Amino acid sequence: MTAEAFASKDWNVVATMRNPEKETDLKTLPNVSVLHLDVQKAETIEAAVSEVIAKFGSIDVLINNAGYGSLGFFEGTPIDEIQRQYDVNVFGVMRVTQVVLPHMRKAKGGTIVNVSSVAGGHTNALGSVYYSSKWALEAWTECLSYELLPLGIQLKLVQPGGFKTDFGSRSLVFSAPPPDVPEYQPMMEKVQKSMVDALLDLPDPNPVVPDAIYLAATEGDPAKLRYPVYVDGDPYGTLYALRKEKGPDAQYQAVLAAQQE
């Protein structure tokens, strides 16, 4: 959706993905190129960026949107899965950004949009791995924004709430609690039910999320870092807003506890 939004406004767009051979719709657009890139493999990043520079000469906007969600009980989550979550959601973004930055410095400008989540602004049970990866992405982006602003390079964070996408079926991993620890079972049932109920009534992300990403990329306001995007009734957006409003931890914890009753 984001690639189409930029292409419709006459941008030259390069969409990257792990399996470009499976993409059909984007390949029909005249000003969209589709390239192979895996954020976990440095050589694919170098190759893709080199091809873009050879073709267009510069990169004006980089949108980092690779990511997936690893949810579940921390005690039952293998350390390999935790490392993979951070490798994709955090280190993958860092790898791509490090390769692109020299070209933006040479051009004396550019914008980097990191697609985070409202999960980067609140917390919840079963989210210790995924949510913390988004908090890490947010902290890194904010720090980097201070380093790069004097160079004419802006950093932006787009924070989508809950929307009806294939995230749940394609980009979600769930780690169950250890089978010999029944103490977790009551919470697992409550949280899973609330998640399922929320997923049944999520809004369509188009055009809200692509519009927010386009605004972040083009608005040019160096003082604005975060672009939260959610609609009324979105349970995840509601938690994000509550976390902002109810600063003291005890108040926020009371809201979460009430939701799980």
What tags apply to this protein structure?
Rossmann fold; 47% helix; 15% strand; NAD(P)-bd_dom_sf; Short-chain dehydrogenase/reductase; oxidoreductase
Tell me what the structure shows:
Helix 2 (42-56) runs parallel beside helix 3 and helix 3 (79-107) runs parallel beside helix 4. It is built from 9 helices and 8 strands. The mean pLDDT is 87. It has one domain: Rossmann fold, CATH 3.40.50.720. Helices cover 47% and strands 15% of the residues. The chain is an alpha/beta fold and 261 residues long.
Report the portion of residues in β strands: 15-25%
**What is the H/E order?**
HEEHEEHEHEHEHHEHH
CATH topology: Rossmann fold
Helix fraction?
Answer: 40-55%
Name the overall outline.
globular
C-alpha Rg, in Å? 19 Å
Question: What do the pLDDT scores average to?
Answer: 87
What topology, given as strand order, has the largest sheet? 3-5-6-8
Give the domain tally. Answer: 1
What's the β-strand tally?
A: 8
Strand pairing plus helix content: what structural class?
A: alpha/beta
**CATH C-level:** Alpha Beta
The CATH superfamily appears as NAD(P)-binding Rossmann-like Domain
* SS summary, helix count: 9
Pick out the low-confidence regions: none
Q: Architecture in CATH? A: 3-Layer(aba) Sandwich
| N- and C-termini, Cα separation | 37 Å
Largest sheet: 4 strands, parallel
Protein name: Short-chain dehydrogenase/reductase
Organism: Chrysophaeum taylorii
Keywords: Oxidoreductase
GO molecular function, one term: oxidoreductase activity
